[in-house]
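Take a minute with the sequence and fold tokens given here and flag any structure token that looks odd. Thanks in advance.
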Amino acid sequence: MSNVLTEEQMRDALFGGTPPGSLKTNQAPPAPKALERPRPSKLRVTLHVTKIFEGDVEVFVHESNTLSRLVAELEAKEGARKKKYKYIDVVSVQQI
């Protein structure tokens, strides 16, 4: 008598016999998940700007490719100064 057991015989001995139909069940392979692209980190800074003190207020919007709110705010202020705005008021900094 041979002492060599097959894998299937070992499983039957350890876990008990299983009905032949339950071993191989045809399951659909899981659907591949759609890969989500990482969104670029951007902040939108909204400023109220004027060229003269208490003049007509204009809305200046700047989009920055950084996560730092402080850096985004400074970039927006520099952009407003380049356009010759003298008085700058930060309204909001939002992530987009």
Observations:
- DSSP finds three helices and three strands in the chain.
- The first strand starts at residue 43 and ends at 50.
